[in-house]
Specification:
The protein is mainly alpha-helical. It has eight helices and no strands.
Length: 235
């Protein structure tokens, strides 16, 4: 099941990177960014936990409050988004060791975000495959889980591509904050689903729509002309 889960998640990531990076899939630096993003995932998870513990201690929350309380959950959503986006962008920038035009940098960001998200999505998909094999599993629940994880990969791929795009536009801070806010909103929607504010079908449609919208925005950015002083990207 683990191999199947990884294959499905990787298929999501490869498809989305192909959309944003287009003819650059053969470039070694693109795959280096995928690997860097994948390594960043467990590091980000390790950092998020102590931050949440610290905040829980300051505000006298139980750790369960992050998934059962709206106020604590929103704080957790922003903390998670902040750490994730910083780590994904840092992984992308580690690969960009020389000046690149905005399109190349966006492609590296997309690859880093995809690598990051594939690790997280594969874990959830593995659980979905396991549940599907049980008598309590359902086809609709399995499809919903696969769709939600596609959205997860799309969101992270698009947001890191967008943040990386901002680096060559001298707006790294603005784009990074925008990415954090967007991921925070995505996490908040997931929290509302966990709190039973809306049903699984609604969350599935919302997450998929959110992911496609961000992916479309990143794609439009990838079509932008190179900024002054940067030559057009080589195919």
């Amino acid at each position: 099941m683990a191999a199947a889960a990884i294959a499905i998640a990787f298929g999501y990531g490869l498809t989305l990177v192909a959309i944003l990076a287009r003819r650059r899939l053969g470039r070694l630096w693109l795959w280096a960014a995928v690997a860097a993003g994948a390594i960043a995932f467990p590091l980000a998870v390790r950092l998020i936990t102590p931050i949440q513990l610290l905040l829980a201690s300051i505000f006298r929350w139980d750790m369960d409050a992050y998934s059962t309380s709206l106020r604590a959950g929103l704080v957790g959503a922003v903390v998670t988004a902040s750490v994730n986006e910083v780590f994904k962008l840092a992984a992308a920038l580690l690969v960009v060791l020389r000046d690149k035009d905005d399109e190349d940098t966006l492609a590296v960001g997309a690859a880093s975000g995809a690598g990051f998200a594939v690790v997280g999505a594969s874990q959830v998909i593995r659980l979905a495959l396991f549940t599907r094999a049980l008598p309590i599993g359902s086809s609709s629940g399995f499809v919903a889980s696969l769709t939600q994880q596609f959205a997860f990969v799309a969101v992270h791929t698009a947001l890191t591509a967008t943040a990386a795009f901002g680096v060559t536009r001298r707006g790294a801070g603005v784009y990074l904050i925008g990415a954090i806010l967007c991921e925070g909103l995505f996490n908040a929607l997931g929290l509302l689903f966990a709190l039973h504010v809306f049903a699984s079908l609604t969350w599935t449609l919302l997450s998929a729509g959110f992911g496609v919208l961000l992916l479309a925005y990143a794609f439009l950015l990838s079509l932008s002309p190179a900024p002054a002083g940067h030559p057009p990207a080589a195919p």
